[in-house]
Amino acid sequence: MAFIKKQPNGRWRARYRDPQGRARSRNFARKVDAEQFLTTVAHSKLVGAYVDPAGGRRTFEDWAKEWRTGIVDLRPSTLARDLGYLNRYIVPTFGPVRLGEIDHAQVRTWVAGLSARGLSPATVTLAAGILKKVMGTAVTAGLLASSPCVGVKVPRIEREEMRFLTPAEITTLADAIAPAFRALVLLGGYGGLRIGEMLGLRAKSVDLLRARVDVVEIMTEVSGHLYHGPPKTRAGRRVVPLPRVATDALTEHLRMRPASPEDLVFRAPEGGPVRLASWRRRVWAPACVSAGLGEQVKDDETGKVSYVGLRPHDLRHTAVGLWIAAGASPKEIATRAGHTSVSFTLDRYGHLLPGTEQRVNDALDVLAGGDTAAPKRGADVVSIEGAR
Fold it and tell me: Exposed (0-12), middle (13-18) or buried (19+): which is 181, by Cβ within 10 Å?
């Protein structure tokens, strides 16, 4: 039941009960406004769109803390990244603001401000996506009627140019790196495993007889803590066939460094798991510099020396480029790489696939001329040099 009553101070109080039966009220300067409000409340209750007015009075920071406690489907590394973005880019702006006061224009201004600070489009897009998650959850929880993030445009992400190595460069890098990681370079460059997949690879998942590895576990490091777990997607859990160059390297690696089935294939000098950050600095960067695939750059102002050049993930790009050069189909590439779909493979690496324009044109000319002879075929294979 809802009704309106005039107060001694001349204002009008609209009283009603929310869907849970709790008594609610709101004051208005005019009776007509109170009547319109009660009509809106009645309609929202009828269609199931009622929003508790008290919910919008919660501050963003308060709701964000509750939102964090409900996150259950993210990997530790992804969770750490998202919370870092939340605390670094979102809470400083929206933290003290009430949820109901955050509007579309404010979100647009915030996105533009991040871009103006020189943040990359990928960073801005990710931060905006996290804000959208937080506000969307507030809508689901009945705190807001709609999200102010809907329709907000984010910067266009220009994909970075991928780097590919030639087989000769893979060999040079494998020879330059510490012997304990020679097989890792060849496994990455020809097998296309991610660095976390290689560092999480156990001896029991290496099948030298059938020349393949079973990718069932990855290793990540977050805030100094190591996490072992399954691949991020179902497609990531896969069996990867290996060419002889990678199988021979793994055979020699395990001969020189025997491992029980549960042992990691690639281990730190002291025998434990490899910590990626220190490995990049102490092992990877010096090897790339020695192989001519990177360099140490000194900042003139701070004097700090940093490495610039080939990344471990570029071995994966190289492997895909070599598969394409060897004539693998998009479907086979997606399966080997653990991509969630062939469309992703085509979107990411389609520019490397051999063109079909000439074959189509030749076939059309044959059809138009009534010729039954087989059309000429264009190049079916691209070289890795062309991929670069």
Answer: buried
